[in-house]
């Protein structure tokens, strides 16, 4: 089979497409013919050896896929030909993958493979962040940084499903329009965003900030929170891990909350199935609408990661593995 491989930790330019043996599924694993694979920030970090998980070279990136079941173990409720999405941790940028059955989920008939390839990690991360970690309540206001990207649009939609008002922070007017189309109630530009948020909330501030960007925004994110607000730390796309001024937490009784879905589900392997049930309900209610970004062929994986790296992406970037 064909697979994208990282041959050295030199970033996207080190990616090559090679012929490799098909995987042999282990106990409890589902063999999947991949139609679409998600492109995510962990993939970019892994090509540079900067992610928490450091696979041995050479390896295939890719943590989420969608396709059809070739073979499934008994007791999973899955059978050959079923349309599924799956989380694979690593190795998803290939024509065939073996995925743990507890991380493999049947797709709704109306959801495309491209949409399915962007649901597992982004929407489950957003669900963990907002429903469980932030304890979001209906009527609260959620601010989302990087709101035009894959995790950003997922966060907007999950927040709306939970009954919250949403404010998107984006870098350009085009991205503001994109975020609104994805479900944001309001959008402000990153330049001067704090003043814009204060105006939108009548100086009250927001209840929750979902921040996958980090860097210089964190201090203003704390300033944007109302009393007993919660800041969700989802990543550091800006490239710098900021310091947290503890006095800001004390004065307004603020919580700073870490969110690491991949680590949590290693210990709670049944949790993703619970999340999938909630997400399917959101989908049926019309809240969950996967936002397709650019699509690239498997051979163009370096360009897909470059699009993510230069912060030009809107929606969920995917690789098309099969038509």
CATH top level assignment of the largest domain: Alpha Beta
* C-alpha end-to-end distance: 16 Å
Mean pLDDT: 94
CATH architecture assignment of the largest domain: Alpha-Beta Complex
Task: Please tell me about this protein's structure.
This protein has helices at residues 41-46, 113-117, 120-133, 150-161, 173-182, 193-200, 217-224, 246-251, 261-267, 271-285, 301-309; strands at 2-6, 15-19, 29-38, 64-71, 83-87, 96-100, 104-106, 141-145, 165-170, 186-189, 206-211, 225-233, 255-258, 292-297, 316-320. The chain is of the alpha/beta class. It has two domains: 2-119 and 290-320, Medium-chain alcohol dehydrogenases, catalytic domain (Quinone Oxidoreductase, Chain A, domain 1), CATH 3.90.180; 123-262, Rossmann fold (3-Layer(aba) Sandwich). The strands form three sheets. Strands 3, 4, 5, 6, 7, 14 and 15 form a seven-stranded mixed β-sheet that branches. The chain has a six-stranded parallel β-sheet with strand order 10-9-8-11-12-13, with helices on both faces. A two-stranded antiparallel sheet has the order 1-2. Helix 7 (217-224) links the parallel strand 11 and strand 12. Helix 3 packs across helix 4 (150-161) and helix 3 packs across helix 10. Residues 7-319 form the Enoyl reductase (ER) domain. InterPro entries: ADH-like_C, ADH-like_N, ER, GroES-like_sf, NAD(P)-bd_dom_sf, Zn-ADH-like_protein.
Keywords:
323 residues; alpha/beta; Quinone Oxidoreductase, Chain A, domain 1; Rossmann fold; 2 domains; seven-stranded mixed sheet; six-stranded parallel sheet; 11 helices; NADPH:quinone oxidoreductase family protein; NAD(P)-bd_dom_sf; Zn-ADH-like_protein; ADH-like_N
């Amino acid at each position: 089979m064909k697979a994208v491989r990282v041959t050295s930790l030199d970033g996207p330019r080190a990616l090559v497409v090679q012929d490799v043996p098909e995987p042999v599924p282990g106990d409890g694993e589902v063999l999947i013919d991949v139609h679409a694979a998600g492109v995510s920030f962990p993939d970019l970090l892994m090509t540079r050896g900067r992610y928490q998980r450091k696979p041995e070279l050479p390896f295939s990136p890719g943590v989420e896929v969608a396709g059809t079941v070739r073979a499934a173990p008994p007791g999973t409720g899955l059978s050959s030909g079923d349309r599924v999405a799956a989380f694979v941790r690593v190795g998803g940028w290939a024509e065939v993958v073996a995925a743990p059955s507890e991380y493999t989920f049947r797709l709704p008939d109306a959801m495309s493979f491209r949409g399915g390839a962007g649901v597992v990690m982004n929407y489950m991360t957003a669900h963990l962040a907002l429903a469980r970690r932030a304890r979001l309540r209906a009527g609260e206001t959620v601010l989302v940084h990087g709101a035009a990207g894959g995790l950003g649009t997922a966060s907007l939609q999950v927040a709306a499903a939970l009954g919250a008002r949403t404010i998107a922070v984006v870098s350009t007017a085009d991205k503001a329009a994109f975020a609104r189309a994805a479900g944001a109630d309001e959008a402000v530009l990153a330049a001067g965003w704090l003043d814009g948020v204060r105006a939108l909330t009548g100086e009250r501030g927001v209840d929750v900030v979902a921040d996958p960007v980090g860097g210089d925004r964190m201090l203003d994110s704390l300033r944007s929170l109302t009393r007993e607000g919660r800041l969700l730390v989802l990543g550091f796309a800006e490239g710098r891990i900021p310091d947290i001024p503890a006095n800001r937490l004390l004065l307004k009784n603020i919580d700073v909350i870490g969110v690491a879905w991949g680590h949590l589900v290693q210990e709670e392997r049944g949790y993703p199935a619970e999340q999938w049930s909630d997400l399917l309900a959101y989908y049926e209610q019309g809240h969950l609408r996967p936002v397709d970004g650019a699509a690239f062929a498997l051979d163009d994986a370096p360009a897909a990661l470059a699009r993510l790296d230069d912060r030009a992406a809107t929606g969920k970037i995917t690789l098309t593995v099969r038509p």
